[in-house]
């Protein structure tokens, strides 16, 4: 696949890194010579200095022969115009744009991005995606990672195995015997810096980060089995009143009348603006690093401190200060891929990575075959994929135990006619079933092949 990416920032670099590693033909455009030099020195891609919305720059990048244009610059308008130019002058089949300003995304303007106006095939709003993930974390405080599939009927959850985890040193196959009605499958384990797909004879150890797939109504019970039965957060302090902080507070007001929310925002103009848009949320003007402000917000009594400013270091430090003051749990927004491991070592319970979320969303449209959803885990070590099985797929028609194709992969759920089923050895996948599975990064191409239209690819 030939792909042109506009924007060589963290998101653009992350997309280019993934696509180049999978042997795609990638060109990347940015106005910064420094960023382009950094990308081309690191990755096997072509770099072009210039404006991503200018036709001559897009032409030099080879857009006339491209299968996809991905516009993820820092400016919504540049991203939108790049897609317009890509459609009008180069007839690019698929155009993806990152749009952050919420005014463009309001429901009554939904026709804006239609083919007759701004022909953008996929609009990605990182703030909304991150906001929804934060809300899921608040409802499932025992989880360190969550993502939904199949219209939220299936949830993938990452959970840290503590010393008191009740199922430590228990072979995974015995979990079915111990909890026969539990619809959850452990599909991946991160241990000592390595991610692997566990076998049924493997056991979980203290310190493991385990990922399981479960029906949505089984998630809380499964977390309890792993020793995490914390109640949903009700007293919440949000550090940062930007788009994400505002979205989370507004949705909490709508979805959880019992929630007591406070926002700390350093910019006085922004603090006044969001205070006018919220009804029950208390808005405090000040820095999330100011101990006096955190004490005024009663962070010591908070169930969760959420740090979502634009500065990773501020987010980490405000979480640590909040923990010192007595906050039960911390959730930090982290853009830099080098920070998550560092933050975990400091005791921050969970983090959200906007870059990973954006890259995951885009990968859904890059992946070949009947791929319906993709989420990248553990900084790209693997992916959870939802796909539709076709009649020609090798998965169809035989019991799973007879298929010798799952090295580095594991099925977590099979959805048939709206019913979520736990995969077992005698499960037979049928055409048009939806399959949610985890695959290590080097096995993703194999997953694409399993869900392609024809057997000629095998």
User: What order do the strands of the largest sheet run in, or round the barrel if closed?
Assistant: 3-2-1-4-5-6
Largest sheet: 6 strands, parallel
Low-confidence stretches: 454-458
Distance between the termini: 19 Å
Shape field = globular
Oligomer: single chain
Characterise this structure:
With 458 residues, the chain is α/β, with parallel strands linked by helices. The protein is built from 14 helices and 22 strands. It has helices spanning 10-21, 33-42, 55-60, 76-90, 126-139, 172-178, 219-225, 243-255, 268-277, 291-296, 312-325, 339-345, 354-366, 444-450, and strands spanning 2-6, 25-30, 46-49, 68-71, 94-98, 122-124, 145-149, 154-160, 184-191, 194-196, 209-215, 235-239, 260-265, 282-285, 304-307, 329-333, 350-352, 371-377, 382-388, 409-416, 419-421, 434-440. The strands form 4 sheets. The protein has a 6-stranded parallel β-sheet with strand order 3-2-1-4-5-6, sandwiched between helices. A 6-stranded parallel β-sheet has the order 14-13-12-15-16-17, with helices on both faces. The longest helix is centred in the N-terminal third of the chain and has 15 residues, at 76-90. The two termini are 19 Å apart. The model is unreliable at 454-458 (pLDDT under 50).
């Amino acid at each position: 696949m030939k792909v042109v990416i506009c924007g060589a920032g963290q998101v653009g670099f992350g997309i280019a890194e993934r696509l180049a590693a999978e042997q795609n033909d990638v060109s990347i455009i940015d106005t910064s010579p420094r960023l382009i030099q950094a990308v081309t020195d690191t990755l096997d891609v072509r770099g072009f200095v210039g404006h991503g919305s200018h036709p001559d720059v897009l032409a030099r990048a080879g857009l006339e022969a491209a299968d996809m244009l991905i516009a993820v610059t820092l400016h919504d308008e540049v991203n939108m115009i790049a897609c317009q130019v890509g459609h009008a002058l180069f007839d690019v089949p698929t155009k993806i744009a990152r749009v952050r300003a919420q005014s463009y995304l309001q429901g009554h303007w939904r026709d804006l991005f239609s083919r007759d106006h701004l022909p953008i095939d996929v609009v990605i709003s990182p703030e909304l995606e991150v906001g929804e993930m934060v809300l899921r974390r608040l409802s499932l405080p025992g989880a360190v990672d969550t993502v939904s599939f199949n219209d939220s009927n299936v949830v993938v959850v990452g959970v840290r195995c503590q010393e008191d985890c009740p199922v430590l040193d228990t072979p995974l196959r015995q979990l079915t015997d111990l909890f026969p009605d539990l619809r959850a499958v452990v599909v991946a384990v991160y241990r000592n810096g390595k991610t692997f797909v566990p076998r049924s004879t493997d056991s979980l150890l203290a310190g493991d980060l385990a990922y399981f797939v479960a029906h949505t109504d089984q998630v809380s019970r499964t977390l309890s089995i792993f020793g995490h039965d914390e109640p949903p957060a009700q007293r919440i302090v949000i550090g940062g009143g930007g788009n994400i902080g505002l979205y989370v507070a507004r949705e909490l007001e709508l979805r959880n009348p019992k929630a007591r929310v406070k926002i700390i925002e350093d910019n006085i103009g922004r603090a006044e603006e969001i205070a006018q848009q919220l009804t029950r949320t208390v808005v405090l003007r000040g820095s999330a690093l100011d101990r006096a402000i955190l004490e005024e917000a009663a962070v010591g009594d908070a169930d969760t401190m959420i740090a979502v400013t634009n500065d990773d270091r501020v987010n980490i430090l405000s979480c640590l200060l909040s923990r010192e003051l007595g906050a039960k749990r911390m959730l930090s927004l982290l853009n830099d891929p080098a920070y998550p491991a560092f933050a975990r070592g400091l005791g921050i319970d969970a983090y959200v990575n906007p870059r990973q979320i954006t890259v995951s969303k885009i990968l859904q449209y890059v992946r070949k075959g009947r791929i319906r959803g993709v989420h990248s885990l553990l900084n790209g070590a693997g992916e959870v994929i939802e796909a539709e099985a076709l009649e020609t797929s090798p998965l169809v028609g035989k019991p799973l135990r007879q298929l010798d194709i799952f090295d580095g992969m594991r099925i977590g759920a099979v959805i048939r006619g709206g019913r979520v089923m736990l995969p077992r050895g005698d499960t037979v996948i049928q055409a048009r079933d939806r399959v949610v599975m985890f695959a290590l990064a080097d096995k993703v191409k194999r997953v694409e092949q399993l869900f392609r239209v024809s057997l000629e690819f095998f």
